[in-house]
Automatic annotation (TrEMBL):
Keyword NAD: no
Source organism: Carlito syrichta (Philippine tarsier)
Residue ranges constituting the Ig-like domain according to the UniProt record: 112-202
Keyword Signal attached: yes
Record GO terms (molecular function): ATP binding; neurotrophin receptor activity; transmembrane receptor protein tyrosine kinase activity
Protein name: NT-3 growth factor receptor isoform X4
InterPro entries reported for this sequence: Cys-rich_flank_reg_C, Ig-like_dom, Ig-like_dom_sf, Ig-like_fold, Ig_I-set, Ig_sub, Immunoglobulin_dom, Leu-rich_rpt
GO cellular component: plasma membrane
Entry-linked PROSITE patterns: IG_LIKE, LRR
Annotated Gene3D superfamilies: Immunoglobulins, Ribonuclease Inhibitor
Annotated keywords: Disulfide bond, Glycoprotein, Immunoglobulin domain, Leucine-rich repeat, Membrane, Receptor, Repeat, Signal, Transmembrane, Transmembrane helix
Subunit structure as annotated in this protein's UniProt entry: Exists in a dynamic equilibrium between monomeric (low affinity) and dimeric (high affinity) structures. Binds SH2B2. Interacts with SQSTM1 and KIDINS220. Interacts with PTPRS. Interacts with MAPK8IP3/JIP3.
Annotated transmembrane regions: 324-347
Length: 422
């Protein structure tokens, strides 16, 4: 049957089938309907159907022996399992008589009874623990612990304390937090059927920060975290080493499922003031754990490290010769300006006086000695210190002061100022 893993219905009828191995249908988990009627079956094990979820099992018109081996059929018929209650099932006694299955009475043939030393087992991480499971009944059951998936090191030790009691100890060594919440199952089996008992394992351990992510923009900025610990730890936050207080801008949302706390530190429109290191601290009675990440939301408007320094000013010193030359040029220019100003003042003051209008103290003889021009009191803007001291009837020729006498008749005659032709 291993080739038909998807088989859902199986009918083997009127084939003279006498027996079926207990694990014949182990590879056919999808079987829902099995018809084995009208065959020559004398016994059948419940283990054949242990892993199946049967809706209907047809077993009429077989020659089952009345024995403890088919006691499970009687129990299923009583409980209405797989619609056996709707069938007329018989078994054959030792004397060959046929007996309805529901009337079969077999002594010392019952389901096993089971008990465990702990219903709930609580240990700390790293501790050792021992749990005992007792199975009793007739026939005496096989007892064992189902530990598939258990991470802690474990050993099984069987003890037969007295008749009809089968005990088995399960020893857990260096219990790990990975086994917190694990269900330990003890089973007891005999030909009639199976019974089981469960033990809930609780492991206390210090907190652990499983993950702490950098800020991610969702509806809000979120620093996502996952924390484990048992008992569940309390959570606190630090911002740059200082306690973080929740506000309209910053708040924590998380949910807790068993030993796991998962959620977000949320930021509503954070600014550069919210940049910095964020530390998550998880604490329970067994210890403390923390982890830090850097949260960066916005750049500073005027970051110090981005301000460009003022470029240095380079001063080039010219040679001394150039400086001296410039000084000479500036001095000459200043002297020329002063001289021009003085000349301008002197011309304004003395250069425009006529014979009748100016009262100048000096008259200048221009040209030849026999000139007929009148002697005007004009100095043509040229003044010497000695001329300033001359009297009103004085002419300065060169550096000599000569007294001058004018002839009044000269102006009255109206002669011209030019010499006569000779």
């Amino acid at each position: 049957m291993e080739l038909y893993t998807g088989l859902q219905k199986l009918t083997i009828k009127n084939s003279g089938l006498r027996s079926i191995q207990p694990r014949a249908f182990a590879k056919n988990p999808h079987l829902r309907y099995i018809n084995l009627s009208s065959n020559r079956l004398t016994t059948l094990s419940w283990q054949l159907f242990q892993t199946l979820s049967l809706r209907e099992l047809r077993l009429e018109q077989n020659f089952f022996n009345c024995s403890c081996d088919i006691r499970w059929m009687q129990l299923w018929q009583e409980q209405g399992e797989a619609r056996l209650n709707s069938q007329n099932l018989y078994c054959i006694n030792a004397d060959g008589s046929q007996l309805p299955l529901f009337r079969m009475n077999i002594s010392q043939c019952d389901l096993p009874e089971i008990s465990v030393s702990h219903v709930n087992l609580t240990v700390r991480e790293g501790d050792n623990a021992v749990i005992t499971c007792n199975g009793s009944g007739s026939p005496l059951p096989d007892v064992d612990w189902m530990v598939t998936g258990l991470q802690s090191i474990n050993t099984h030790q069987t003890n037969l304390n007295w008749t009809n009691v089968h005990a088995i100890n399960l020893t857990l060594v260096n219990v790990t937090s990975e086994d917190n919440g694990f269900t330990l199952t003890c089973i007891a089996e005999n030909v009639v059927g199976m019974s089981n008992a469960s033990v809930a394992l609780t492991v206390y351990y210090p907190p652990r920060v499983v993950s702490l992510e950098e800020p991610e923009l969702r509806l809000e900025h979120c620093i996502e975290f996952v924390v484990r610990g048992n008992p569940p730890p309390t959570l606190n936050w630090l911002h740059n080493g200082q306690p973080l207080r929740e506000s309209k801008i910053i708040h924590v949302e998380y949910y807790q499922e068993g030993e796991i706390s998962e959620g977000c530190l949320l930021f509503n429109k954070p600014t550069h003031y919210n940049n910095g290191n964020y530390t998550l601290i998880a604490k329970n009675p067994l210890g403390t754990a923390n982890q830090t990440i850097n949260g960066h939301f916005l750049k500073e408007p005027f970051p110090v490290d981005e301000v460009s320094p003022t470029p240095p000013i380079t001063v080039t010193h010219k040679p001394e010769e150039d400086t001296f030359g410039v000084s000479i040029a500036v001095g000459l220019a200043a002297f020329a300006c002063v001289l021009l100003v003085v000349l301008f003042i002197m011309i304004n003051k003395y250069g425009r006086r006529s014979k009748f209008g100016m009262k100048g103290p000096v008259a200048v003889i221009s040209g030849e000695e026999d000139s007929a021009s009148p002697l005007h009191h004009i100095n043509h803007g040229i003044t010497t210190p000695s001329s300033l001291d001359a009297g009103p009837d004085t002419v300065v020729i060169g550096m000599t002061r000569i007294p001058v006498i004018e002839n009044p008749q000269y102006f009255r005659q109206g002669h011209n100022c030019h010499k006569p032709d000779t």
